[in-house]
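Quick start: read one record
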Amino acid sequence: MELIIDGYNMIGTDHGLGGPLEHQRNWLIQQLSKYRKTKGFAVTVVFDGWRSGRINEVEEKQDGVTVLYSRQGEKADDVIVRIAHKKGSGCVVVTSDREIRNAVEKFGAVPIYSGEFAGILRQLDRPFHEEDSDESNATSFGKGNPSRLSKSEKRRQERLRKLRP
């Protein structure tokens, strides 16, 4: 399983986007590296470079985490969707952006909310890795039995269980 993280969305969810972004990017990469070492999943984090980025997309490795900056004129959202299209059902996309979530689901990728994944990252620092009770908050939207989860929500919940430390 591979994780694709919407970098600024994740930072904004957990810390807000105020202050020095370089420090916040480094903090997130450090947390993702710790997670990667614990779980062994491949992790890619994508940041916007579309306003002040380079002409070409930039990819670098930091502590085992693949860090991508979109090229100038391209949003990170587009890069995330492109990667999810290539990886398909083998990836989990961490973002709270509705457009990205809807797009990647079409390719079989499973979207996880940034807040949910932030909670998983926080578990790395807890002794004994207590389980959060987030699973009981799952909801099903649409037609059908309201007490049964939709297929996509079942897949999402299954991936969430696998992501937890």
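Residues 129-141 have pLDDT under 50 and may be disordered.
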